[in-house]
Amino acid sequence: MTVYNFCAGPAMLPPEVMKKAQQEFLDWQSLGVSVMEISHRSAPFLAMVEECEASLRRLMNISDEFEVLFMHGGGRGQFAAVPLNLHLDGLPGVYVENGIWSGGASQEGARFTSVESINIRTDKDGLFDIQPVDKWQLPADASYIHYCPNETIDGIEIFDVPKRKNAPIVADMSSVILSREINVDDFDIIYAGAQKNIGPSGLCIVIVRKTLLTREGLPRPSILDYTIEAKQGSMYNTPPTFAWYLAAEVFKHLEAMGGVPAMAAHNKAKAAILYDYIDSSDFYSNKVAKHCRSLMNVPFWLKSDSLNELFLKQAEQAGLVALEGHRLVGGMRASIYNAMPIEGVQALVEFMDKFAKEHS
Length: 360
Ligand code: PLP
Fold this sequence. Notes:
Aspartate Aminotransferase, domain 2; globular; 16 strands; 2 domains; alpha/beta; single chain; Aspartate Aminotransferase, domain 1; serine biosynthesis; cytoplasm; amino-acid biosynthesis; binds pyridoxal-5'-phosphate; transferase; 7-stranded mixed β-sheet; 3-stranded antiparallel β-sheet
């Protein structure tokens, strides 16, 4: 039976990449050992990381104005690193909030610096909506403006980018990176925990504008210091070597698939199949306004929560796994990242339709 994994993260990775990694597990580049067992300062490893960065730069069209860092600590590590590196005396870190992760970033930021939170989300008659980017009440001055373009739990995606207002724009792209085209120049820091569209958890990609590396910020652990990491080629300490290798393989695979434009078309098509079905059904519902529905994470609710357990059990028997919604919001959630094939979404819709007919 084919299993389709709808987990929000750690999430499904391209099967082709996993098969290649399996073949190389005990013998990488004919070295007779795996990539996890060699020095991160050895020539083969250094060549791999160089090509990894070059590949990501090609995929996202990242200019020389930016450093690309491969850091530890996942997305949440950056919740702390951003205020620690970007703090300016007397100016707040501004957090645009529209869901659980942007709220979490704000809470963590408040441990280190003064924060100003701006709520852009409305919940009216059970429908979640967000204010358009040009209506956000951003202060003229801030040490940075942080937002989360895709709220993984709430299923809310912000497609426009805020205009810079005398403050660097920082985006938590953990669950949206490489899923659609963006203009990196619109941002000052982009960070993304790897475990959705990139590779194993723990690794975090940080794309940081070089001009920010001169900010003094706050006293901080060296491991979270962008300037130190940039100077050390992301090897201040031993990097997560296997995660880095697998990220390189995923980037190579994405390039071979046609890069980000191809992923964007693929993701749009998948999301349309699922949302169109949910909208056409009286049995299922999604609570997000159409213009800001996530293309990556699709939360949906059954007509009655009393059917949730049965739905999950039968879905699993049909090979459709990890559909349970996040514990904070309930319901179901189908995460359909880059690696989810269209056949997986079709199989999910077929199953949902059969289930609805049996329980209407
Ligand atoms: N930000 C977003 C948008 C996420 O979806 C997640 C995790 O799912 C995180 C941050 C936290 O990432 P991590 O668990 O790698 O710290």
